Amino acid sequence: MTGVCNKVGVESGSGNGTGGEVRQGGTLGVVGAVLTLLSVLLILLTFPFTAWSCVQVVLEFERAVIFRLGRVVKGSAKGPGLIWFIPWLDVVQKVDLRTFSVYICPQQVLTADSVPLLVDVVVFYRVVDPTLWFTRVQNGCDATHWLVQATLRAALGAHTLTDLLTQWPSIATRMEEVLHSGSRPWGVQVQRVELRDLKLPISLQRSLASEAEAERTARATMIVAEGEVKASRTLREAASQLSPVALRLRYLQTLASVDSSASIVVWILPTGILQ
């Protein structure tokens, strides 16, 4: 597979693929049946000299689709292991079943509240039906790339900036569902959609930073004010519970704890005034 696809990891599928119905090839007709029979007889008569040209090896993570006289050979995709074919009648197409990645370069997207964004994503997918991959789409990699771009613009354009920043996991899940339904007829299964980066305009970044700083300052002021209110309530409750004698002792204790090097003028009031 070529194009924008980059291989990541190894995730081998089953021999028959998963999901999607298996497409059966049509009948070859009388001419095709005669050619096939004659070819088999020729291979048997010249065995083992022609045997080497009638065998291909399919790797564990690959599957092979055989086209005989332009039609798909009946049955599912072949492999892994040795597969037999008729060289002058068959065309063997191999497909990689490992997970592929599609990187979408930063795209200019306009949100629902008219905020321009630069967004780039990575989509992970794999082929689950090799027959559909070769018969339903001309270039599966390019088709998947353009489908991801269109889905990205449509999905992000339907949400506001706040939704994108707070609800991105759910938005990515909906994108996966849309991509899966769109690429399923090609024999592709979308596995994951990851947002790599989201760039805001410089002016909007400064506005958001100023707003966040103002919120933090207001929150800090409220915390300090609440602390002062609680402290004043505690002091008032303590003063109401102290008797004049206890208040006098507390007064003398405070004087004893004052630094001796400080210059302090102390006014001593009679207890009767406090009463």
Automatic annotation (TrEMBL):
SUPFAM superfamilies on file: Band 7/SPFH domain (SSF117892)
Band domain span: 53-212
Domain of life of the organism encoding this protein: Eukaryota
Gene3D superfamilies assigned: 6.10.250.2090, Band 7 domain (3.30.479.30)
A GO term from the CC aspect: cytoplasmic side of plasma membrane
Pfam families: Band_7 (PF01145)
Free-text function comment from the UniProt entry: Plays a role in the regulation of glomerular permeability, acting probably as a linker between the plasma membrane and the cytoskeleton.
Protein known as: Podocin
